[in-house]
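Exercise 3.2. Students should predict the tertiary structure of the chain below and write it as C-alpha cells, then compare their answer with the key that follows.

Predict this chain's 3D structure.
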Amino acid sequence: MGWTEYEKKLKEWYGYREAKNQDDIIIDIYNSQRPAGSYKMTHTDPWCHATVSAAAYASGNAGKVPNTCYCPTGINIFKQWGKWVGRYTNAYNPQVGYIIYYDWNKDLISDHVGTIIARNGNILTVREGNRNDMLCDRQINVNSPLIIGYGIPNWGGATKAPVATVPTQEETKRTWLQIGDAGAEVKDVQNKLIAIGYSLPSGADGKYGKETYTAVKKFQHNVNIKEDGLAGEVTRAKLNNAYNTRSAAKANNSWVARLQAACNAQGFSNQRVDGIAGPNTLAGCPTLGTASKGSITKLAQERLNALGYNCGSADGKNGPKTQKGIKAFQKAKGLPANGIVDKKTWKALLGL
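Answer key:
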C-alpha cells in the first residue's frame, strides 16, 4: 500500500458534499479508528483533517499520516516524526503526495489542510475535504503566504521526498496550553472563548492566566469533557466547533447560546452552552426588574427588538423604551403587562 491507494481513495470521495451528508461518511470512518481517548467528532465538525486521516486508514495506509482531526496536532505529529517542512525554510519544496497546511488567519495556527495531487510549475493542485462544504480541489501558488508548511508521509517510495528539517525542542513540545503560557495560540483560544460568550475581563491578551484557566474550565463543563483548565486537543476541537457554528440559525442558536453563557458567567446557572432553548435555559434566566441593567438585560432587549417590540438601542439599560417594549410583548402574549421579565416572560421570549 502507498500513495497510489491513498490517491485513489481521495478520487473516490471527490465531490462529496455536506448538503448530501456525505461528509458524515468520512467523519464516521475517522471516528471508527481514532486514537483511544481522542476527540470523537460530531457530524457538524470541520472535517478537513479527518479527510486526510480517514483516507489513509481506508486505503490501507494507517500510520503514514497523523491520525487526528485537528490541524495543529497534525503539524506537531509531523514535527515529532522529523517530517515537517516549514514555509520559510531552505528545504521548502512541496511535491505531489505531501500534506499541506494553511494559516488563513495569519496567526501561525493552522486551520485547514489538504493533499497535493499535482504540481505544474509554481501551481499546486490540492485535494481538500471541507472546502466550500465539499471535497474538491484548490489551485494555489507554491509561494502563497497562506501556506504554513507541509508534512511528508512515508508512502513507501511512491513519491520523492526532500530531506525534512529536524524538529527543535520547541517544535516537539506538549500539545496543550496551561497557566504560564503566552503567545498567538493562547490569544486564539481567548478570542474564541470571548466570541462564544465567556468572560475574560482582561481581554485576549495572549497570556494564559487565572482568567483563561477559569473560562476554559467553564467551557469544558458546558460541553461535558474533562474539566482540567488545560486547552488540549479535545478542548480546542470542541472550542473550534463552538466558534465555527456560533452563528447558526437553528433554534435561535446565536442568541440563546449567548444568553446561556451570560447566565453562567453571572452565577445564575451552570448549564451547557449549546444554543438550544430548553428547561435548563429557562431555569437559569434571572428575573429582570423594571430598573435592571447589564448583559442579560441587553440580551432581552435584542430579543424583543428582533420580535418587533421596539426597545430602542440594546444598551443594557431598562429605561422607558425598554419598559414599553416589554409591556407590549407581555400584553400580546396574554401575560400581566408589568414590565418585569419573569419566568413566564422569559418562557415566551425563548419560544417555549
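Discussion points: Residues 190 and 204 are 5 Å apart (CA to CA). The chain has a mean pLDDT of 85.
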